[in-house]
Every structure is written in C-alpha cells, then in structure tokens.
Amino acid sequence: MKTKIAFLGCGSMGEAILAGMLAAGTSPQSVAVTVRRPERAHELATSYGVTALAHNEETEANIQAVTGAGVVILGVKPAGIADLCREIAQDLAAESVVVSVAAAVSLAQLEGALKAGQAVIRSMPNTPLKVGRGVVALSTGSSVDEHQLAAAHAVFAGSGVVLDVPEEQQNAVSAISGSGPAYAFYLAEAMAAAATDLGLAPEIAHILARETVAGAGLMLAEPGAVAAELRRAVTSPNGTTEQALASFDRDGLPAIISAGAQAAAARAAAITEELGHK
Ligand SMILES: NC(=O)c1ccc[n+]([C@@H]2O[C@H](COP(=O)([O-])OP(=O)(O)OC[C@H]3O[C@@H](n4cnc5c(N)ncnc54)[C@H](OP(=O)(O)O)[C@@H]3O)[C@@H](O)[C@H]2O)c1
C-alpha cells in the first residue's frame, strides 16, 4: 500500500494492527506512529522500522503524523478519542479517512469532534490481527466513499477477515470478537486449573491447556471449518468427551457465556452514554 498511514496511539491494539499490516507487505516507510512515551516510540521504531513520535516530548507529534496521511487510525483509549479528534481535525488531508478502533465511541461522537464532511469509519478489530488471524468489523460514517472504505479494508485485509456491519451491531461485535480473545484465554486458564484439580503439576497443566486451545484454534482456522462439526468429530457416543460436554450443558455453560457477552455489550452502550456527556 503506497498511502501514508498514521497510527495515533499504538498500544496492544495498535501494535496488533501494525504488526499484521507490515507482515502482510505494507512498507514501514509509509507508516507514522505516535504514542505518549519516548521509550515506547523508540521500541516501535526499533521493532518495526516505522517513524515513531512521542507526544510527551513532541507536542505536535499527532499533527506531524497525520500530515499527508491517507488513512489515520485512532488507537487511544475511548476516553481520549474526542480530544485527539479535535487536536488533528484541521490538519487532516481533505481526502483522508479516519478509522477509529475505539470500543463504544460512536460515529456521531467521532464526526462531531472532526470537521464537517470528514470521512470516518468506526471499527472493531481484535488482537489476533497480530498473528494474521484477526477479524474486524467496519461501519462507515456519512462521508465515506468507496475508495476510502477500500483503503480501510486494505489496512486489515492482510491480517484478518474484514466485515462491514451497520453501526448498531458494533457493541455486539465488540462483545464477541473484540473481547473474545480474552474469553479463549480464560478457557485455557480454567482448563489449566481443572488439570491441577485432577492432580497434574502446574507446569504440565499449563502446557496441556495452552497447546490444546491453540491447536483447536488452528483446526477451526482451516477453510470451511465449523465448530459444531469439529466438536462432534471428537465426541464418541458414551465416551469421555461426551461426559464432559453433558456436564457443561447441565451446568448451563452456553447461558453463562451468553450472559457474559450481554454484559460486555451493555458496558459498551454505557460507555457510549458516558462519553456523550463529556
Ligand atoms: N486491546 C484490545 O483487545 C482491543 C480490542 C478492540 C478495540 N480496542 C480499542 O483499542 C483502543 C486502544 O486500546 P489498547 O488496549 O491498545 O490500549 P493501550 O495499550 O493503552 O494503548 C493506547 C495507546 O495510546 C497511546 N496514547 C495515549 N494518548 C495519546 C495521545 N494523546 N497521543 C498519542 N498517543 C497516545 C499510548 O501511548 P503510551 O504507550 O506511550 O502510553 C498507547 O500507545 C481502545 O480505544 C480500545 O477500545 C482494543
């Protein structure tokens, strides 16, 4: 991609997108990154070969990064997004597209903090983008044209699956794929704890759980894989796995997971409300 891309804020999420994008072939010379701390800027410049500026020592860092950029990715925490938009609004190129990765920040809030007519996309990525297995959902603001949407797709396409969804579905997306990697890690933790309950040593328990979740994830990543079919293929009638799954069902595990996702989506809606009142 020849377009200059600016990352404003590059922590866990920004780095996952950056690493995936560079691994997929984007030139580091076309990327400018900003963070707060000089040591973090140095780390990113050294690891990825990108231009990295620290806002704490260069107050114009964000403005420098967006100057001439075709795609501007907002990767700070939700509470910092509106201030960041106001800071860069006047310096964005007319044809640029701003892509927010912030959970719960609405298109109306983004557009309200930028110049009228600015192209804006709200996205919900996830950290497996870092290893080329992410998924991201995009929702477009009122001024986005097809070239700008294609440029946003191109940022993510090499490192994951890109979907377009209506904005009202973004909190649900956040509750499944945005937060979802943490659910998978939580499952691995719970399996390791179960292994120690069965008498295995903690280091063996950790390896068994980690490799099993990672290996199952790779099987699920095969083209055309369907979770229910993979599960049935390893569940013999009257066998051991069937006993475990029946126990999960009796204890209501699907409902527990659904309630957790509902809680995540409700929190996203509450954050949108809180931000709206600032
Ligand atoms: N983590 C996830 O799994 C995930 C998933 C989906 C969406 N998101 C969204 O991604 C966004 C970032 O989350 P995160 O987990 O990556 O947070 P994070 O690790 O705390 O990263 C935030 C980054 O923003 C930088 N920053 C803060 N203020 C800045 C400013 N004024 N100018 C330039 N850089 C600034 C920080 O710099 P320093 O490093 O120097 O402090 C840091 O690099 C959030 O809005 C979140 O909703 C995250």
Number of domains: 2
In the predicted model, the low-confidence regions spanning at least 5 consecutive residues are none
Bound molecules: NADP nicotinamide-adenine-dinucleotide phosphate
- Per DSSP E runs of 2 or more residues, the count of β-strands stands at 8
Q: What name goes with the CATH superfamily of the largest domain?
A: NAD(P)-binding Rossmann-like Domain
Order of helices and strands: EHEHEHEHEHEEHEHHHHHH
| Percentage of residues assigned to helices | 40-55%
Q: Count the helices. How many?
A: 12
Q: What structural class do the secondary elements suggest?
A: alpha/beta
Strand content: 5-15%
What about the largest sheet? 8 strands, mixed
State the distance separating the first and last CA atoms. Answer: 37 Å
Task: Please name the CATH topology of the largest domain.
Answer: Rossmann fold
Bulk shape = elongated
Which architecture of the largest domain per CATH?
3-Layer(aba) Sandwich
Q: What strand order characterises the main sheet?
A: 3-2-1-4-5-6-7-8
